[in-house]
Design goal:
The complex is a heterodimer of chains A (261) and B (76). Chain A is of the alpha+beta class and 261 residues long. Chain A contains seven helices and 13 strands. The longest helix of chain A is centred in the last third of the chain and has 13 residues. The longest helix of chain B is centred in the middle third of the chain and has 15 residues. The chains are: A alpha+beta (261), B mainly alpha (76).
Chain lengths: 261, 76
Amino acid sequence: MENLSYIGQLNKLTASFLRRGVMTNCFVAASEFEKHIENGSVFYHAKDDALIILLRLQNHDRLYYYIKEGGSPPHLKLTRPTVMEIVRRDEYQARASLLWQSVGFKLIVRRIRMECINPAQTSAADNGVYIASREQEEEIMRMLQSGFDSLTGCIPTMDELAASVARKEFLCIEENGEMLGLLQYNNDKATSEILHLVVKAEGRGRGLSDRLVNYYKSQLTGLNKRLRVWTNEDNMRARAFYEKNGYRCDGLSSDVLLAVK
Amino acid sequence: MDKILQILSELRPDVDFTKVDNLVEDEVIDSFDLVALVGELCDAFDVEIGVEDLVPENFNSVQSIWNLIQVIQEGR
């Protein structure tokens, strides 16, 4: 693995791979790699028929690949737990998932995407949910860390979390001064996605998730956005919860694969 | 530009690309479509599009895609 030292290098490396029939799981904008490249935390492995990009995160690496038609995953000397996500939308991605599983990656989670189109008008006046503030960042991080898997839970760094709080993307609900639940979402022009929704054990069964989702939807009412969420395929409770709130599977799924060194 | 229209129509037969703009920002085509689209464009026009070019403003309309192809063909 070699260090990727500037963004133009990423452009040069990928140029010959952005072709018809190439299998890839890299759908992120180059700009999203920029900060990581500045930090020296992006590595690559290139050969004729495959390009691997590794993003070094706090406790694991995230792998992106480009594999040309007829190519195969290269043999990699991984030094840390390595996670990749393959969105399954056509035969290429389904084949890619199997290819990586044949070289030692394990399928640990399959996620499905659910979408809520034309959400009903929702009013969330005075339902106890409020927008999180800067002072709550550490508490939010603790809740995310206890509620989601450290490798696959897409837990943001402290900097990313702070930026998200500044964009008012965290909603909280508390009781007697204790945060019991939170919801993080993102907001694009045409879509909005729930990124994390968690309620502490002592707050469960009391409709706090409903109140968080209601408030979230009330923020977006009338904006004609498609509301989405990814949830684990086998988490029937979560699926039923989102269905109750107007979400339906939209046919997209993704495999989360893990290799432990 | 006809070639671009043809590629887009094969990718998303349900969309009339002569009548829409803001293709990316309005998510008429999403990021998964975008990568497939770039693959088709590179093969059809024999150009190399890099990840740095994968920004909404380059793909928001047939015209903007055509402009990008021309810039690349002219050696930037």
